[in-house]
Design goal:
Helix 2 packs antiparallel against helix 3 (109-125). The two termini are 18 Å apart. The chain has 126 residues and is of the alpha+beta class. Strands 1, 2, 3, 4, 5 and 6 form a six-stranded antiparallel beta sheet that branches. The chain has helices at residues 20-35, 75-86, 109-125; strands spanning 6-13, 40-47, 57-58, 61-71, 91-97, 100-106.
């Protein structure tokens, strides 16, 4: 559970050139890198709470999804890392802060920078 000052970010890797196994492998690698960031309080894969029969899950996790919790003062550091790591990859971010959610997509470095600025503005407005 996030604290009042924590921001929850859900990252969905959307690369259509990767199959489910490749996308999950990339997600797990990104997760390990995010966990190594001092600014991140918590990070994990997203569990499928009710996997329907025949669903595409890997070990009970939703493919290509991870979450990270970061203190609001450290959000720029996380976004800086994501910008370097995911700059030209199609992703979807969901930012949850202060009981509100913002869902945004990007598929290029330029779009990602704009998306991250929108997310930072969303967090500052609280």
């Amino acid at each position: 559970m996030t604290s009042a000052s924590s921001i929850k970010i859900t990252i969905a890797l959307q690369d259509p050139n990767l199959d489910d196994i490749e996308r999950q492998k990339e997600t797990e690698q990104l997760l390990q890198q995010i966990r190594n960031l001092d600014e991140v309080e918590n990070a994990d894969l997203v569990r499928d709470p009710n996997p329907p029969e025949g669903s595409k899950t890997v070990s009970g996790f939703l493919i290509g999804l991870l979450t990270a919790e970061v203190n609001a003062k450290n959000i720029k550091a996380l976004f800086g890392f994501l910008g370097e790591r995911l700059g030209n990859k199609p992703i979807e971010l969901e930012v949850e802060a202060y009981g509100k959610k913002l869902k945004i997509k990007a598929s290029s470095q330029q779009e990602l920078q704009a998306v991250m600025q929108a997310a930072q503005d969303f967090i500052v407005q609280g």
